[in-house]
Automatic annotation (TrEMBL):
UniProt-recorded name of the protein: Permease
TM spans (from-to): 7-24, 30-46, 58-78, 90-109
UniProt source species: Planococcus wigleyi
Top-level division of the source organism's lineage: Bacteria
This protein's record includes keyword Transmembrane helix: yes
Keywords, alphabetical: Membrane, Transmembrane, Transmembrane helix
Length: 116
């Protein structure tokens, strides 16, 4: 149970960070931050309803693919609409999201194996 509360705290900290970025640089990667905020809220729901999603792993994988594709499209839209040119560092957001997805999937996998 401690691991579940720790994951929820990390997701809440991420949501707090994303909300705070809207006050710092509101014009930079605007669509990406909105999409990330939406996906973070959904991952919070997944973390709270972990028993359901541990039995429905293909649904979690499908949502992970959708979130990676959605964030990459938002990054491309943000970068093409920016006036200062293309910034390749913006795609590091995808690496961060992918790492979080892998850790979340391993957490679901371990919880499911422990329940058996």
């Amino acid at each position: 149970m401690k691991k579940n509360i720790g994951s929820i705290i990390v997701i809440l900290a991420l949501i707090g960070f994303l909300v705070a970025t809207f006050f710092l640089q509101y014009e930079y990667l605007f669509l990406t931050r909105i999409a990330s905020l939406i996906f973070a809220l959904v991952y919070l729901v997944i973390e709270v309803k972990q028993e359901y999603f541990s039995s429905k792993k293909p649904l979690f994988i499908f949502f992970g693919v959708i979130s990676i594709l959605g964030i990459s499209v938002c990054i491309i839209l943000d970068e093409t609409s920016a006036t200062d040119g293309f910034n390749a560092r913006s795609f590091m957001v995808l690496v961060f999201v992918f790492i979080l997805l892998v850790v979340s999937y391993k957490d679901l996998y371990n919880k499911n194996d422990a329940a058996k």
